[in-house]
Design brief:
By secondary structure, the chain is an alpha/beta fold. Helix content is 39%, strand content 21%. The chain has helices at 2-18, 22-29, 62-73, 107-121, 137-140, 150-163, 167-175, 184-189, 222-231, 238-248, 274-287, 303-319, 346-358, 389-395, 400-405, 409-416, and strands at 30-33, 36-39, 43-46, 53-58, 77-85, 95-100, 128-134, 193-199, 266-272, 291-299, 326-332, 364-370, 382-386, 419-420, 431-437. The strands form three sheets. The protein has a six-stranded parallel beta sheet with strand order 6-5-4-7-8-9, with helices on both faces. Helix 7 (167-175) packs across helix 9 (222-231) and helix 9 crosses helix 10. 55% of the residues are buried. The model has no long low-confidence stretch (mean pLDDT 95).
Length: 441
């Protein structure tokens, strides 16, 4: 039955990813009726009052989003510039497409961010700036503040990502080291109208957290950024600490807040998120004969601890002897405090931890994957865990607990044949975790 569970898991996860199609999300959000443009059912713009549309965007889903925007507004689009991750790019009419590194920024991202700021500043009062954002934009648009160079920003980013800090904490620091995040892109585009469409990759879908909130008021402060460094005992370059301290002392302008004039003609809308993926997964699981439900859409915490809890959840569910197979769905984003020198990502670490708890149990499976198709700095989207994972790895000379201790989940799961590899999916709505239980394997 394990083979059947795995096949079902792949189908269910595929349905989750398909539900977050970025092109379709934009087409649904932008409803054009003659000269009237309705946005997300919340706002209307008379296109007769618009001279042209400028498209600016970044993220792992931005190519599909841009396709949707061109489908609806192509005749009005004068120019666009978008930045996406390596391997995600495609040629688009009227668009300058930049590829850059993620999650640690590089000089190509620097160029893409500079181009985005250039185009924003060129916007006139009668222009519409359409900003397309999805997960990954924070790293893909590095625009360090004066006095901080890219290599220093890279160092801070790497340390934040290895610290176990939550994405909101990471972005509190990045916003205050950026000339584009934390509302500064909207500031550059003012007084033009700015409409942001965002595909959320953060728990709760906060617009100020998606892509470091370049077009919305920032809810964090320099003090918050310094608190993150203190909380995680992070050593950072002197220039970084000096800038944050100067901002906290009022010597450097704070990021734009709610009543800044830059937001008078700006609106922002989340058009797809993790909930879309989870509901589609439930529907697909039910089609396959499972009793399915969403357990949580706010999954956070250390990946190894969450994996252990999900292994226990799977075993307890089976112990209840349900009358038919059960599918449990969870969404969110765990973290990893990196202490070893192995390879992996949060989803693979979660899977390996679950596998240790499931060792020897038949009829249960845990699958965890990033909907963007990339889990950490690896070629995998995530991993499977079942009762035989640990034994399969052991047969290849691997020790599951030692691999977990060294943060080397990728090597172990690869040896066990339990990696989930999808390649770039073109979207990004957090992680989806699936627990399948067959009461009679």
């Amino acid at each position: 039955m394990t083979t059947a569970l795995r096949e079902h898991a792949r189908v269910i996860l595929d349905a989750a990813v398909a539900a977050a199609d970025p092109r379709l999300a934009v087409v649904r959000a932008l409803q054009r009726d003659g000269s009237l443009l309705r946005i997300g059912g919340e706002r209307e713009i008379d296109l007769a009052e618009i001279d042209c549309v400028l498209v600016i965007g970044a993220g792992k889903a931005v190519i599909g989003m841009a396709r949707g925007a061109l489908e609806v507004l192509g005749d009005l689009v004068a120019e666009g510039t978008i930045t996406t991750k390596d391997g995600y790019a495609a040629e688009l009419p009227k668009m300058e497409v930049w590829e850059a590194a993620h999650p640690v920024p590089d000089t190509r991202g620097l160029a893409g961010a500079a181009d985005a700021l250039r185009l924003a500043r060129s916007a006139g009062r009668r222009d519409l700036v359409l900003c397309l954002l999805s997960g990954g934009a924070s790293a893909l648009w590095p625009a360090p503040v004066p006095g901080v160079v890219l290599s220093e920003l890279r160092e801070v980013t790497e340390r934040l990502l290895r610290s176990g800090a939550r994405i909101g904490e990471v972005n509190a620091v990045r916003k205050h080291l950026s000339r584009i995040g934390g509302g500064w892109l909207a500031h550059a585009a003012a007084p033009a109208r700015v409409v942001t469409l965002a595909i959320s990759d953060v728990v709760g879908g906060s617009l100020s957290a998606i892509g470091s909130g370049p077009t919305v008021p920032d809810t964090t402060t320099y003090e918050d950024a310094l608190d993150v460094l203190l909380r995680y005992e992070m050593q950072v370059p002197p220039s970084v600490r000096a800038h944050l301290q100067a901002g906290d002392a009022g010597e450097v302008p704070e990021t734009p807040k709610e009543f800044d004039a830059a937001f008078l003609h700006a609106s922002a809308h989340v058009i797809a998120g993790n909930a879309d993926a989870l509901h589609a997964a439930v529907a697909e699981a039910e089609r396959l004969g499972y009793r399915a439900r969403i357990v949580a859409d706010d999954l956070e915490g250390e990946a190894c601890s969450v994996g252990e809890q999900l292994g226990l959840l799977a075993r307890n569910t089976r112990a209840e002897r349900p009358d038919r197979p059960v599918a449990l769905l969870l969404g969110g984003e765990t973290t990893v405090t990196v202490q070893g020198r192995g390879r992996g990502g949060r989803n693979q670490e979660l899977a390996l931890s679950a596998a240790i708890d499931l060792e020897g149990d038949a009829g249960v499976l845990v699958a965890s994957m990033g909907t963007d198709g990339t889990d950490g700095p690896t070629d995998a989207a995530g991993g499977f865990a079942d009762g035989g994972t640990v034994a399969r790895g052991r047969a290849r000379g691997m020790d599951a607990r030692e691999s977990l201790r060294r943060n080397d989940s990728h090597t172990f799961l690869q040896a066990a044949g339990d990696l989930i590899v999808t390649g770039p999916t073109g979207t990004n709505v957090n992680d989806v975790v699936l627990v399948l239980v067959d009461p009679a394997p």
